[in-house]
Amino acid sequence: MSEAKGMIIKMKGKKLFILILTIVMVISALLTGCGNTKTTSNNTSKNTSSNNTKEKKTFTLFYDTSTATPYDYTKTPVWKKLSDLTGVNLQVSYLVGTDETSKATLMISGGDLPDLIVASNNTFELFREANDLVPLDDLIDKYGTNIKRWYSQEDLNKMRDPKDGHIYYLTPARKTLYLYPYSGFYLPLEVLRDAGWPKKLTLDQYFNIIEDYVKKHPTYNGQPVIGFTALTDSWKIFTLTGVPSYLAGNANTGDVWVDENNKAHPFAISQWAHDYYKKLNEEWNKGILDKQMFTRNYDSYLSLIASGRVLGFYDQRWDIQNAINSLEQQKLYDRVPFALPVTFDGVTKEDYNSMNMTGNSAGIVITKSCKDPVAAFKFLDAMCSDEALKLENWGIEGKDYSVKDGKMYMTPEQLTQYKDSNYTKQEGIGQYWYFPHPNDGEKLADGNFVSPQDTPEYIASSYKPYEQEVLKAYNITNLSQMMAPPIETPYGFVYDISIPDSEQQIKIANQKASDLTRKYVAQMIPAKPDQFESIWKQYVSEMQKAKYDLEVPYIQQQIDWRIQHWGTK
User: Fold this and answer.
1) Cβ atoms within 10 A of the Cβ of 265, count?
2) Strand-pair partners of 257
3) CA separation, residue 40 to residues 77, 84, 88, 366, 518 (Å)
4) Cα separation, 99 vs 123, whole angstroms
5) pTM of the complete model beyond 0.85
6) What is the pLDDT of residues 201-258, one digit of tens each?
7) Membrane spanning segments where (predicted)?
């Protein structure tokens, strides 16, 4: 209950005053609005003698992205405080029963847009082409106090539209905290322990460890141990076909690798690809590889890892998290896989932690249906103020966290609450990722971390006993330190450079190359040793005919454009 409302209730006998005040509020609510917005009184007043009231704006917000789970956080205790702080009520809705593009097309054709939209890259382009979005440049300059504090000029430049140079969205893609390596070649805890805690390995050393362990332990729970597998289902075949570049020390930049001079090169038929597939062919013929790796779907792949039978594979952590969860639930801790950096012999660097930087993925936009875009923008800026960030990430002081001598911390009980996803969802903590926010690891003006997950105490408490064994063995405090730190580039991620529909020849060539790669790796790897080279040569010839590298000049053009326009000049 607000202070003013409480005082009004106490003013018994002054019914006439209350009636007049109520009439004024109703009239005020009817006269104001923003597109689909309404104005309501929160009856907040620090000085009741002057009868000052703070009006709340109401904005509609639609999440037109399949990655957002429907959930009305506006009913939570944290949001109620955020609403009081920002002076805004939100009416949120989510994508349900259709796909992003269909919903966006329907909204555009109907002309009935919400005030704010969380857009994906695909839907942003649709709204932008329909001229339905408000440019944010002037708003950032005039009112973006907090946004300019957290988003550097380079960050803002990344969001500029290539066609007119305006900024239409504020990306949520920021630097993130890594508790685990982004990707790598995995081995179970028991295998690491048995091998004497190996660190950076060559490809040959990695497979030697697997071969030695399979010889000593050919079965697990009564079933044959599988030395190595690869995910080949649908687009996730990248966990097989992208590996040659990683083995050469490169970061994840999609179908190309980028050299130190920022020049893009294809690697699908490179010597790196030849050598990796050749090694897998050798291991296949030794009986080390999974004989079903070209027919397993994603669920079967995860089930294999969760069974504890498979030893090695390359993947990215997010892709196998469910299998790790299953192993933990079964208490098969010795079979939980850990990522290692593996390279070709002679390669001195590695980038398995890939890149960690502010991206240019689309985010929250203000539509031209909003009648008060200035107020809408001020709300977005207020959501990344220090006061709001504390609420969003830490919760409510005294309930969700404590403060001593100015330092924010969590008691053991509060930490347990924080790690309970049901509690944080009910409380409304950590539900605001799509709003503008700082990079992970940033600190507030008072010296506290923006997020409790960045504190050393939280990081130390995040690892289970079996993971702490690995930390101790490698003398590290964070499992992501198994790899080199993530890099930043002046051109972003590269894999997010999409080929537009106007470049049909490139799209056709890419599809042909993808089909050929899928076809020939499934022939090369299981082939007899004396057949490998002839199949490889046929693959190279077919890829060249298909113009597999037709996309490279276009990608280079986009890299050059980004370097030119994303800087501070």
Assistant:
1) 15
2) 265
3) 19, 12, 9, 21, 59
4) 10
5) no
6) 999 999 999 999 999 999 999 999 999 999 999 999 999 999 999 999 999 999 999 9
7) none
